[in-house]
């Protein structure tokens, strides 16, 4: 049996909040380190970025921008099979996100008062793609494709270089295929700072998207307090699985392990009312883990993962909605009925044949999702994330007269007499 995963049987509701605790990091030192990096980039621009590349990436960079020749070379290095997989995923992501396009709203609230709302693309967006354990070319598709569909004019992508001073070929190929307008070999908190404030090479953007390590996420939070929008607050990745006696234990175990593969801070939780599944799962996870690489990192993730045995579906759904998971897999005989009861989750996977991996890559939904309970208030990245909604109104003389007295009375009672005057002078003409 696995020594990593804790099993909790029928916890009292007073224990639930403790069981929902995510991995906590020392933030004081992190805030200072990231703040210093941001200040360096703001004051020294490209020079600071090259210094950080030497220090953190171990590379000497002449040009921060990826050249057309490097993009062409990358295309030669990517296999035809991977190119086809990228094309399949991109097509599904495009199909789902294009369907989210908002039609203009036009309403005549009273005769002579016409109100409109239109979605307008954010002109300049910055996308961060992590390096580290894996080349996340899937995240390139998840961010570039909706940005292009939304009509963003400048889609700036930053990603760290490898030890050879080059970006992974699959990331470059996916970025070019999806429609990124420029790509830079810059990683970490310094990339976020560069996109937030601009340097000699990297243009300033209005909104920054993308996952990353704790330094990247802290940088996003700090620049968001300085006037640059971000997609959402985020922490370590997580999955919650709801399963019953009908679930294949190997399916559930593989979902646990695919989440653990995201990083040592990731968390997996099984909620079930089936005692046999709760007892068997740790052993099945151990059997599956033995077949996989990265076992040391995955064991660290599993050390703060849980199997939680609850009384019934009502308790399970109450726990799930309070936890507000980034990913929620419902692998039960009544999965559709339980899915109807979900109120807080980033993305929901319904049924035995809907693994998280499908949404991570190619089903069409976006995998950039709120973590750490933020799904109670935040959506995952979608087409709206790359637009802002602008309202318009046109009033005729009669239209203003029809609501003018209401405006005057409200302005008077808020003691805003210039507001009243702006209406009165028009009505008196």
Structure description:
The radius of gyration is 25 Å and the shape is globular. The strands form 3 sheets. A 6-stranded parallel beta sheet has the order 1-11-10-9-12-13, with helices on both faces. Strands 6-5-4-7-8 form a 5-stranded parallel beta sheet, sandwiched between helices. The chain has a 3-stranded antiparallel beta sheet with strand order 2-3-14. The model has no long low-confidence stretch (mean pLDDT about 95). The longest helix is centred in the N-terminal third of the chain and has 19 residues, at about 80-100. About 45% of the residues lie in helices and about 15% in strands. Helix 9 (about 215-225) links the parallel strand 7 (about 205-210) and strand 8. Helix 5 packs parallel to helix 7 and helix 8 (about 190-195) runs parallel beside helix 9. The chain has 17 helices and 14 strands. It has helices spanning about 15-20, 25-45, 45-55, 70-75, 80-100, 135-150, 170-180, 190-195, 215-225, 250-260, 275-290, 295-300, 315-325, 335-340, 355-360, 395-415, 415-425; strands spanning about 5-10, 105-110, 115-120, 125-130, 155-160, 180-185, 205-210, 230, 240-245, 265-270, 305-310, 325-330, 345-350, 385-395. The chain is α/β, with parallel strands linked by helices and about 425 residues long.
């Amino acid at each position: 049996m696995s020594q990593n995963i804790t099993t909790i049987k029928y916890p009292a509701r007073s224990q639930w909040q403790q069981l929902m605790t995510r991995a906590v990091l020392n933030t004081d030192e992190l805030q200072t380190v990231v703040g210093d990096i941001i200040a360096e980039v703001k004051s020294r621009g490209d020079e600071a970025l090259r210094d950080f590349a030497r220090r953190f990436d171990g590379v000497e960079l002449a040009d921060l921008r990826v050249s057309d020749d490097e993009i062409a070379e990358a295309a030669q290095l990517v296999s035809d099979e991977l190119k086809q997989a990228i094309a399949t995923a991109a097509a599904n992501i495009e199909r789902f996100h294009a369907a989210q396009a908002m039609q203009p709203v036009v309403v005549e609230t009273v005769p002579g008062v016409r109100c409109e709302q239109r979605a307008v693309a954010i002109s300049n967006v910055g996308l961060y793609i992590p390096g580290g354990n894996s080349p996340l070319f899937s995240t390139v598709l998840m961010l570039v494709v909706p940005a292009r569909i939304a009509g963003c004019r400048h889609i700036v992508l930053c990603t760290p270089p490898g030890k050879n001073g080059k970006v992974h070929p699959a990331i470059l190929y996916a970025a070019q295929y999806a429609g990124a307008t420029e790509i830079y070999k810059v990683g970490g908190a310094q990339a976020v700072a560069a996109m937030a404030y601009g340097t000699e090479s990297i243009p300033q953007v209005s909104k920054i998207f993308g996952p990353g390590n704790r330094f990247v996420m802290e940088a996003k939070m700090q620049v968001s307090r300085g006037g640059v929008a971000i997609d959402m607050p985020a922490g370590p990745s997580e999955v919650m699985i709801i399963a019953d006696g009908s679930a294949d234990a190997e399916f559930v175990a593989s979902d646990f392990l695919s989440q653990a593969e995201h990083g040592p801070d990731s968390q997996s939780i099984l909620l079930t009312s089936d005692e046999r599944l709760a007892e068997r799962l740790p052993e099945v996870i151990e059997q599956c883990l033995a077949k996989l690489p990265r076992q040391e990192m995955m064991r660290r993730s599993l050390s703060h993962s849980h199997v939680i045995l609850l009384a019934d579906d009502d308790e399970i759904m109450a726990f799930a909605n309070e936890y507000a998971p980034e990913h929620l897999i419902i692998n039960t005989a009544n999965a559709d009925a339980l899915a109807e009861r979900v109120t807080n989750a980033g993305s929901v996977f319904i049924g035995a044949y809907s693994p998280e991996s499908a949404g991570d890559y190619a089903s069409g939904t976006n995998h950039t999702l709120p973590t750490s309970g933020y799904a109670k208030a935040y959506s995952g990245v979608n087409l709206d994330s790359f637009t802002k909604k602008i309202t318009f109104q046109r009033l005729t003389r009669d239209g203003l007269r029809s609501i003018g007295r209401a405006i005057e009375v409200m302005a008077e009672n808020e003691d805003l007499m210039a507001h009243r005057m702006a209406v009165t002078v028009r009505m008196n003409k």
